């Protein structure tokens, strides 16, 4: 299977990839427009993503460029702090960090948000990437609408394990990178976000 060619999504060069899509159809364009407006609100409520999907295995927290939690729409340069839900007493090394490097609202029928694994906020020129994928990896979140549907998709490209860390964490990152747990997480999130009654 080859990665889908989607406008605005980085080319697949090296490593793994995943395409996760969820689509919901409606009987009228008016209902599509109404549901898409709700989906846009949900899409930009990153702190509530795990509340919209049953079985989501991670919690998401939007942070500013200093790493402080914020309750607002995301901006380019913000970070998303990710924690697996089964971790009850998290330590700093249990979190995964990504930084938002693109938000595209230029198309009224589609919104894109792209992020990539990052170092700790405020430490851009030192330290190591805090994620099981390397900084070459991207995750692009896309919501869109057509005449009779709304869609939520996550396209991951150039997924390579982060080996710029301790030996033990490198092994853990390799395992996490190849087990496909992110596919389960993204499918749960995509299904949940478009499940608008």
DSSP helix count?
4
Low-confidence stretches: 166-179
Largest sheet: 7 strands, antiparallel
Strand content: 25-35%
Tell me roughly what share of residues is in helical segments.
10-25%
**Rounded average pLDDT:** 83
Kindly name the structural category: alpha+beta
The run of helices and strands is EHHEEEEEEHH
- What is the CA-based Rg, rounded? 17 Å
Primary descriptors:
197 residues; seven-stranded antiparallel beta sheet; 4 helices; globular
List the helices and strands and how they pair.
Elements: E1 16-25, H1 29-43, H2 49-52, E2 58-63, E3 79-84, E4 96-107, E5 110-117, E6 138-145, E7 149-159, H3 167-178, H4 181-194
Antiparallel strand pairs: 1-7, 2-3, 3-4, 4-5, 5-6, 6-7
Protein described:
Strand 6 and strand 7 form a beta hairpin. Strands 1-7-6-5-4-3-2 form a seven-stranded antiparallel sheet. With 197 residues, the protein is α+β, with helices and mostly antiparallel strands. The longest helix has 15 residues, at 29-43. Helices cover 23% and strands 31% of the residues. It is built from four helices and seven strands.
Summarize this structure briefly.
By secondary structure, this protein is α+β, with helices and mostly antiparallel strands. It has 4 helices and 7 strands; from the N terminus they run βααββββββαα. Helix content is 23%, strand content 31%.
């Amino acid at each position: 299977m080859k990665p889908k060619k989607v406008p605005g999504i980085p080319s697949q060069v090296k490593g793994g990839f995943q395409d996760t899509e969820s689509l919901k159809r409606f009987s009228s364009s008016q209902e599509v427009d109404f549901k898409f407006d709700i989906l846009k609100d949900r899409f930009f409520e990153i702190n509530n993503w795990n509340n919209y999907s049953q079985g989501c295995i991670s919690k998401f927290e939007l942070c500013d460029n200093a790493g402080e939690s914020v309750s607002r729409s995301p901006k380019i340069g913000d970070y998303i702090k990710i924690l697996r839900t089964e971790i009850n007493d998290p330590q700093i090394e249990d979190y995964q960090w990504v930084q938002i490097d693109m938000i595209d609202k230029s198309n009224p029928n589609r919104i894109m948000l792209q992020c990539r694994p990052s170092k700790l906020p405020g430490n851009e020129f030192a330290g190591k990437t805090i994620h099981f994928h390397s900084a070459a990896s991207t995750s692009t979140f896309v919501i869109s609408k057509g005449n009779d549907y709304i869609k939520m998709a996550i396209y991951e490209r150039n997924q390579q394990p982060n080996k710029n860390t301790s030996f033990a964490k490198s092994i853990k990152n390799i395992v996490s990178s190849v087990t496909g747990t992110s596919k389960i997480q993204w499918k749960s999130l995509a299904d949940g976000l478009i499940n608008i009654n």
